[in-house]
Write a structure and sequence with these properties.
Layout lengths: L3 H9 L3 H23 L2 H18 L11 H23 L23 H14 L4 H12 L4 H8 L3 H29 L1
């Protein structure tokens, strides 16, 4: 694996080899982010690819000089681009994400940022989050998983800060009910 700073510099010079390596290294990571928002694998692939186009077009703007953890900083920068691309896709097509099972092959895309136990917890949590109504799911994803503030969510989605807080409260309430139902179902099985 090449040094992230070398890859970024290669991408800034528009070197196809660097772009290919960067794309392959972070494809799984970005696909999972997109999938949390759009919930259709084919659309998530398109969002991921569109996001990489934006990443490569704007990589000149990315700065990480003298940063202790340049890869983390770069991943956070990419994450924001993928989230915004996902939201743009939903707005553009007036999409209400489909609620359905998450295909197993989505989880086969390698994400080097997670350990096995984190991966299982993440997978289980995302399967619960998918059951939320879209407006609650988006705010939950942005606030809890992606670390946006209510102000940032409000600006990004074009809603008020109060609506963002209300949607998060409702999302958490629904998730608590979903988790209780799942636990109750498991206790009947055992």
């Amino acid at each position: 694996m090449e040094n992230i700073i070398q890859l970024i510099e290669g991408c800034k010079k528009q070197l196809a080899k660097s772009q290919k390596i960067l794309y392959e290294q972070f494809y799984g990571y970005t696909l999972k982010i997109a999938f949390r928002y759009v919930h259709r694998y084919d659309v998530a692939i398109n969002v991921t690819n569109d996001g990489f186009v934006k990443i490569f077009r704007n990589i000149e703007k990315f700065r990480c000089e003298e940063h202790e953890f340049p890869e983390r900083l770069f991943m956070a920068w990419m994450k924001r681009i993928i989230i915004n691309t996902s939201i743009d896709e939903m707005r553009k097509n007036n999409v209400t994400p489909e609620i359905g099972g998450i295909p197993e092959y989505v989880w086969e895309e390698r994400d080097h940022s997670q350990k096995a136990d984190q991966f299982l917890l993440y997978k289980e949590m995302i399967s619960y989050v998918k059951d939320l109504p879209p407006k609650y799911r988006i705010v939950f994803n942005m606030f809890v998983i992606d670390g946006f503030s209510h102000f940032e969510i409000a600006n990004t989605l074009g809603i008020s800060v109060g609506t963002s807080k209300s949607n998060l409260f409702r999302a958490r309430d629904i998730l608590q009910k979903i988790i209780k139902e799942k636990e109750k179902a498991r206790s009947w099985i055992l």
